[in-house]
Amino acid sequence: MTSSRLAELPGRPCPIAAAIEVVGERWSLLVVRELHLGARTFNEIVVGTGAPRDRVAARLKSLMEAGVVERVEYQSSPQRFEYHLTPSGEELAPILTALLKWGLKHVVAPDDPDREAYRSATATRGQG
Q: Is there a single domain that holds both residue 96 and residue 79?
């Protein structure tokens, strides 16, 4: 896992600022979400996030450098890889759940027809 020195961060240095340096870039948490939900291939991550391919590639690279994601070869000829969360990446699951719950409560329109599926999913896991 990449380490940061708090004094090297701009503004008020704190662990939140250090964490945002790793997962605060646009698309990073969505890449983590997709891996948490079971996506493994680059194409699955692109489809699930809706992000441009170059953005997904950049986020995967930075998340691998930070020790959040690992790339594993699953075929040698032609060479193919899949992506997995590291134990550090798995520890982001409660943050994803908290963002999901916050988004349902404060952001998603009350009349959104897809809203209930997410409310049901969090209740099924005992989180909603």
A: no
